[in-house]
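Researcher: Here's my situation. A collaborator sent me these components and asked whether they could plausibly form a single complex. I don't have experimental data yet, so a predicted model of the whole assembly would be a useful starting point for our discussion.
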Amino acid sequence: MLSRTADHLYWMARYTERAENTVRMLDVSYRMSLLPHANGDDHGNWRAILDISELTEAYARTGRPLSARDVIEFVLLDRGNLSSVWNCLRAARENAHAVRGKLTGEMWETTNATWLKIRDLTPEGLQDMDLGGFFEWVKFRSHLLRGVTVGTMFHDDAFQFARLGTFLERADNTARLLDVKFHALMPAGEDTQGATDYYRWGSLLRSVSAFETYRQVYRDVITPYKVAELLMLNDAMPRSLHACLDEIVDILGQVANSRSCETIRTAGALHASLHYGSMDDIFAVGLHPSLEKFLACINTLGDRISNDFLMPVAHA
Amino acid sequence: MSITTKPGSRPFDEMYDASGAIRPHYQPYAAWLEGTPRQLIDRKRSEADIAFHRVGITFNVYGAEGGKERLIPFDLLPRIIPGEEWRALERGLAQRVRALNAFLGDIYHGQEILRAGRIPADQILNNAQFRAEMKGVDVPGGLYSMIAGIDLVRAAGADGKGEFFVLEDNLRVPSGVSYMLENRKMMMRLFPDLFSRYEVQPVDHYPDLLLETLRAVAPTGVLDPTVVVLTPGAYNSAYFEHSFLAQQMGVELVEGQDLFVQDEMLYMRTTQGPRRVDVIYRRLDDDFLDPLAFRADSMLGVPGLMRAYRAGHVTLANAVGTGVADDKSIYPYVPEMVRFYLGEEPILNNVPTWMLREADDLAYVLEHLPELVVKEVHGAGGYGMLVGPASTKAEIEDFRLRILAAPEKYIAQPTLSLSTCPTFVEAGIAPRHIDLRPFVLSGGKEIRMVPGGLTRVALKEGSLVVNSSQGGGTKDTWVVD
């Protein structure tokens, strides 16, 4: 298939997934901000949101205060913030538009309808809205597009590249979420094995739809160690790093071409580190350095995929 | 509902004869309409609007605010053509396109028609649309315009019968076929019962015919050619059509950046590495095809494409340089081409045309501007024209100055009273002027077309301009037996 077509499908999926994960992160922060403050500092919570998406500097330039309302507006709707949910959904739709002939009618209508709905939403409009409901809406639009893609698109290479975008983005986003929240909730030196703040760790799990799963897997109190294990190493947990890498390795095997050996090796090595890795080893190195290494590796993988299969120019 | 506004007596009406009686081929439709409440029609109309919007069958209007995507108004009242009338048109269209292709082959090779003095040589050789790069280049099948859109209009003859005239040949990148296909799909969805009252000849196989046509003109020796559709991109006014046709044919829709030339071979960039391309259905003007051969500032084309093309390694459909045959200054000579190349009398007539570079014609036209239609030779899309009877004195005087400044840039024709067809309007149903663009495919030995074509309708009362860029709409076109 045409490299440009693959590129558009890949980015359509990535931007949609990014929008979904962004509201997942907002959602957890929003819920946490409704809890009684552990240390009386709500700012840290919102600063963390900006840190996750590497937006701290861009936000500082806007001169806005670190208040819930301002940060949420910036992350959801800001036209100048290229990572805002508004911009992600616009980019997803633009990518879909460029290859609409390759999409099923349902896929196009789903992305187009999502965009038409959020297009005219202003900060004033957002204030009249139930925030939780809006987060849900974004999540469900992403679910819908992914479901429609799996359920209607011919499972050829075009489909594989759309899926590749989804899992690469999700691996990246889960790692970021874990990194930032872990740091915020778990000051250095504390015992990762001990039971801790049930509500805050619970909201982290809920933000990746993993609360019930945690209970089912561990039948135990929530410990940071196990939360990290679930989101990193458990391959049955659909948003875990391991599960994402399972998919990425599988897809790369199917679309392989004469240039992609090194890309496949990179993905395979990363996958092996999760497949055969243990939490003890990860904590021995440190969770933060491990996740940083993981993110750098995902970034390299993304560049390699672009160079081998897609459009060589850097997008995001 | 019933039709309250009867057409006037002057123009030929497709539905009513001069006495106001319904023509036989419209009678089943009229009976159906009689028994159908207006509310139902209104509901169907909004259903159609919603569906067209949702699917995004839109059209970008140049010059409109921010190049906004807009729907082309779709009229629910079909234009119906009796089968025997169509078959006569079909013969005339095939004859005309055959002659036009022969003409193009001739002027890029032996130029016999010029040597025979049937067309003044300077008219061709000094024409901006004449591409010297094409001299001596052999194209597969000797075909230049594989996809032609011939604009027909019907005017009332002296005997009250409607006669078809060719208004314009479109031999470069004619568009509109996707509307023909979508209009039919919509009509069948909205009014399935109507199709049980008529045997409407199907048009849905057009993409199949198009693909066959494109495969038939692949470079010699290529048995299983790779065909692509080349689009200027998502912001082009006809992007929907480009994407639609590529999808329907199951071929790649490419932009210039997807292609590259190496050693005079054309490749596209795929996820599996470079892949050879044999036939390009290009929806891009000559000027933009290759920055090395034509406009150097074109970002839309493929550097080196002309070299690969001239070497015969890739086929362009349509060929480069077809514009010299559909130029309005060449149009008056097409009947002569039919006689010269085919030794036949033209089946389809031209509209009488004054060429303003001729002193006599110019003098006549300047005296009769308020009655005439004057067109820019290189204009298209209804831009740069004067419709005398519909213009104010000031507009006419303004145009007179433009003509005097460069008479060779204009032709003039009598203001034809284009035929009308009843059309849904605010107040009910009223006659509106229409034209017809059939799409003629030449590939291999045969010339083929699907029955009918795109009917365009001037929605403004009295207007003769049917172009979608000027507020025209479209109708489904039925050829019935």
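Model: Some features of this prediction you could bring to your collaborator: Residues 269 and 276 of chain A are 10 Å apart (CA to CA). Chain A has two domains: 1-153, 155-316.
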